[in-house]
Amino acid sequence: MILYLDDEPVNLTLFELMFKSKYGVLLSDSPEKALNLLKEADGIQIVITDMKMPGMNGIEFVKKAKEFKSELPYYLLSGYGMNNEIAEALDCKLINGYLQKPLQREALENIFNQYID
Predict the structure, then answer these.
(1) Could you tell me the pTM of the whole model?
(2) Which helix (H) or strand (E) is 12 found in, with range?
(3) How far apart are CA 45 and CA 111, in angstroms?
(4) Region of residue 93 (left: phi > 0; alpha: psi -120 to 50; beta: else)
(5) Helix (H, G, I), strand (E, B), or coil: what is residue 11?
(6) 100, 81 contact by CB (below 8 A)
(7) Could you read off the pLDDT tens digit of each residue along the chain, which spans 117 residues?
(8) What DSSP string describes 44-60?
(9) C-alpha to C-alpha distance for 36 and 13, rounded to whole angstroms
(10) Whose CA is closest to 45, among 72, 74, 69?
(11) How far is the C-alpha of 22 from the C-alpha of 91, rounded, in Å?
């Protein structure tokens, strides 16, 4: 199962339409809700998060999530391109990878197939 976090409703809808028929998908429109889903839901195998969100960015979210779900792979999506914060998160292995928006189905499926049977 994939947990996808994005504060933009259109991105959540697009992600769900692209992947729900092939993978289990949980959606969250806020980091706080996503943290609760991680604590409560069984079967999450990978987490995809947007970078830029109000209140908590994607890297801050991953740091909090790893406090209790450190074994999961975390991937970051951003529409703004690579920056120093993302590069540092990659270098220190906080995140498993980074993808640029818009969503690229084939690239995401390649990642999902590494973690989901």
Answers:
(1) 0.94
(2) helix 9-19
(3) 11
(4) left
(5) helix
(6) yes
(7) 999 999 999 999 999 999 999 999 999 999 999 999 999 999 999 999 999 999 999 999 999 999 999 999 999 999 888 899 999 999 999 999 999 988 889 999 999 999 997
(8) --EEEEES--SSS-HHH
(9) 20
(10) 72
(11) 31
